[in-house]
Amino acid sequence: MKDRMARVNRLLQTTLAGMVPGLVKDPRVQELIVSVAEVRTTPDLRQARVFVSIFGADAEKERAGLEALNQARGFLRGELGRRVRLRHTPELAFERDISQEHAAHIEEVLRDLKHTSPEPREGSAAVADAIRSGRRFLVTAHPGPDGDAVGCMAAALLVLEGLGKEVVAFNPDPVPRRYRFLEGTGRFVDEVPEGTFDVTLVLDTSDSRMFAGALEFGAPDLGTVVVIDHHKTRGDLGDVVLWDSGAASVGVLLHRVFDELGIELSPAVAEALYCSVISDTGSFRYQNTNPDAMRVAAALLEVGVDPWRVSSNLYEERPRQELELLARVLQTLEVSEDGLAASLTVTPEMLEETGTTPDVVDGFINYARGIQGVEVAILFRPRPDAVRVSFRSRGTVDVAAIAERRGGGGHRNAAGCTVPSVSIDLLRSELFAEVTRTLRAEG
Question: Domains in the chain, please, with CATH?
Answer without folding.
Answer: 2-104 (3.30.300.20), 121-316 (3.90.1640.10), 320-442 (3.10.310.30)
